[in-house]
Amino acid sequence: MSDDRKANLVRVAKGEGGHFAVAGADLTWKVRGEQTEGKFCMFEQVLEPGTGVPLHTHSYPEAFYILSGTVEFASENDVWQCVAGDVVIARSQARHTFNNRGDETARLLSISVAAHGRFFDAVEQADRQEPFATLAPDAAMARVATIGAETDTNFVIG
Q1: Residue among 92, 71, 89, 65 nearest 153 (CA)
Q2: Which residues contact 70 (CB under 8 A, 6 or more apart)?
Q3: Is position 100 within any domain?
Q4: Are strands 96-99 and 52-57 parallel, antiparallel or unpaired?
Q5: Which CATH number belongs to the domain containing residue 88 in this structure?
Q6: Phi and psi based region of residue 24 (left: phi greater than 0; alpha: psi -120 to 50; beta: remaining)
Q7: Spatial distance between the Cα atoms of 41 and 58, rounded to a whole number of angstroms
Q8: β-pairing, 106-112 with 62-68?
Q9: Domain that holds residue 99
Q10: Is residue 53 part of a domain?
């Protein structure tokens, strides 16, 4: 990855970016907040069939661009089956969830404020201290929810 702070352009080539896989999340950072003077971040997320992100909110908007497969997005009022080329915007404080209910792998880009990265960094750090894989699914989700509450990603549990 080209990240010369004096360069006018930064390129993240295909296959580049920091990979992160823990607690059901499988993502690759394409742009970190440090690269954008703290303005935004972007990551590619892979959703295998049957996986997704539970209902949650945060105080900032997030945009999703579907790259491949079908991703079901839901809020309190809407449920959409989204395909490659579709864009979904979750507004600030909007309860939202997304899942791959299909038979093929789905890929999407998430673009948000740089602060969104704090949640994923905290989850990754927690996994290094005590791997989520050693926990029962409910205990792992409770731990993720606690981290989320500390980093402005609030999961709606129950």
Answers
A1: 92
A2: 81, 82, 83, 100, 101, 102, 104, 106
A3: yes
A4: antiparallel
A5: 2.60.120.10
A6: left
A7: 15
A8: antiparallel
A9: 20-155
A10: yes
Q: Please state, in angstroms and rounded to a whole number, the distance separating the CA atoms of residues 25 and 123.
A: 10
Q: pTM of the predicted model, to two decimals?
A: 0.90
| Full pLDDT tens readout for the chain, 158 residues | 555 556 789 899 999 999 988 767 899 999 999 999 999 999 999 999 999 999 999 999 999 999 999 999 999 889 999 999 999 999 999 999 999 999 999 999 999 999 999 999 999 999 999 999 999 989 999 999 999 999 999 999 86
Q: How many domains does the chain have?
A: 1
Q: 3-state SS of the chain?
A: CCCCCCCCCCCCCCCCCCEEEECCEEEEEEECHHHHCCCCEEEEEEECCCCEEEEEECCCCEEEEEEECEEEEECCCCEEEEECCCEEEECCCCCEEEECCCCCCEEEEEEECCCHHHHHHHHHHHHHHCCHHHCCHHHHHHHHHHHHHHCCCEECCC
Q: Classify residue 78: in a domain, yes or no.
A: yes
Is 63 within the bounds of a domain? yes
* Residue type present at position 56: H
Reading the block at residue 147, the tokens are 């981290």
